[in-house]
Amino acid sequence: MLRIAVQSKGRLHDDTMALLREADIKVSESKRTLLVKARNFPIETLFLRDDDIPATVADGVADIGIVGLNELEEKEADAEIIRHLGFGACRLSLALPKDEPYTGPEWFEGKTIATSYPTILRKWLNKQGIKATIHVISGSVEISTGVGLADAIFDIVSSGSTLVTNKLREVETIMHSDAVLIANKLLDNEKRAILDEMLFRFDAIQSAETKKYVLLNAPAEKVDAITALLPGVKSPTVMPLAESGWCSIHTVIDEDRFWEIIGKLKAEGAQGILVIDIEKLIV
Ligand code: PRT
Ligand code: ZN
């Protein structure tokens, strides 16, 4: 049995549960108890506040966990990062009242900065050789300058709209974060094997997310030119169509190359191009 710590509610909860569901790990949330066994996979889920996840995994109370990289760094917990999961993306930035002229990091010398992430901020200030007062608050950091509690803030930014609403301007980005899968450093072989099976499923989901399955019809004499444009998982599948002189080509392409490739395929005479989402991709 492998125990995974996940956020009980909050910004990472839904994406975490969706990832487990897509990996066909069925965890019932209806009971809302602290610890829930999956119905069809040897894991149990421990629902916690995100702040508690790094230490819980480092101490071995949970074997693995899903938490923001920012939270892991802040808590300086001794756990291993196994995968970046891509969701929960954000950055940790310093921001000032928007009309305040910013000259560079030395602006912060002697100033007061409000944050919920004092460890990450302290390290950055030390690296810059700047002495500033850190005012630790656990929520609503963005209102600190408006109410005279601090000269600047250091907080999580995603779209940036919270800063705009509070008349703040982002001046330094100190770290980028996304949700990470972390593990205790001393897992036994049985737990490693369960983790490996889980990773196999997560990786299949992640590779599928960035790929598309493409089917198209092409004139037989253009098959070589068209397949040369298709960097598939291996080589594309080419099958003759009932109509003589025509073939059907099937392959998998990277989503970010999608528009560039489609245009070139059409130029080579491809027709009936069908692009399909892939649920899982095992390479
Ligand atoms: O109750 P618990 O302690 O578990 O949750 P929490 O309230 O501490 O954390 P939660 O659920 O708010 O966030 C969990 C994690 O989500 C964070 O540690 C980040 O890793 C990640 N994340 C991603 C974010 C954001 N995006 C985000 N935008 N966490 C917080 N925010 C907040 C931010 O604090 C600010 O107030 O959203 C606001 C900024 O958003 P924009 O879009 O206006 O810039
Ligand atoms: Zn928290």
Helix-strand layout with pairing:
Elements: E1 2-7, H1 13-22, E2 35-37, E3 43-48, H2 53-58, E4 64-68, H3 69-75, E5 80-84, E6 90-97, E7 112-115, H4 118-128, E8 133-136, E9 152-157, H5 161-165, E10 168-177, E11 179-183, H6 189-209, E12 211-219, H7 223-228, E13 237-240, E14 246-254, H8 258-267, E15 271-277
Parallel strand pairs: 1-3, 1-4, 7-8, 7-9
Antiparallel strand pairs: 2-3, 4-11, 5-11, 6-9, 6-10, 12-14, 12-15, 13-14
Bound molecules: phosphoribosyl ATP and zinc ion.
Features:
alpha/beta, D-Maltodextrin-Binding Protein, domain 2, Alpha-Beta Plaits, 3 domains, 6-stranded mixed β-sheet, single chain, binds zinc ion, binds phosphoribosyl ATP, 283 residues, flat
Any overview of this molecule?
The protein has 283 residues and is of the alpha/beta class. The protein folds into 3 domains: 2-86 and 178-207, D-Maltodextrin-Binding Protein, domain 2 (3-Layer(aba) Sandwich), CATH 3.40.190; 90-177, 3-Layer(aba) Sandwich (D-Maltodextrin-Binding Protein, domain 2), CATH 3.40.190; 210-277, Alpha-Beta Plaits (2-Layer Sandwich), CATH 3.30.70.120. The chain is 27% helix and 32% strand. It is built from 8 helices and 15 strands. The chain has helices at residues 13-22, 53-58, 69-75, 118-128, 161-165, 189-209, 223-228, 258-267; strands spanning 2-7, 35-37, 43-48, 64-68, 80-84, 90-97, 112-115, 133-136, 152-157, 168-177, 179-183, 211-219, 237-240, 246-254, 271-277. Strands 2-3-1-4-11-5 form a 6-stranded mixed beta sheet. Strands 8-7-9-6-10 form a 5-stranded mixed beta sheet. Strands 13-14-12-15 form a 4-stranded antiparallel beta sheet. A hairpin with a 5-residue loop joins strand 2 and strand 3. The radius of gyration is 25 Å and the shape is flat. The mean pLDDT is 95. The structure holds phosphoribosyl ATP and zinc ion. Phosphoribosyl ATP binds at residues 7, 10-12, 49-51, 68, 70-71, 88, 90, 142, 155-162, 177.
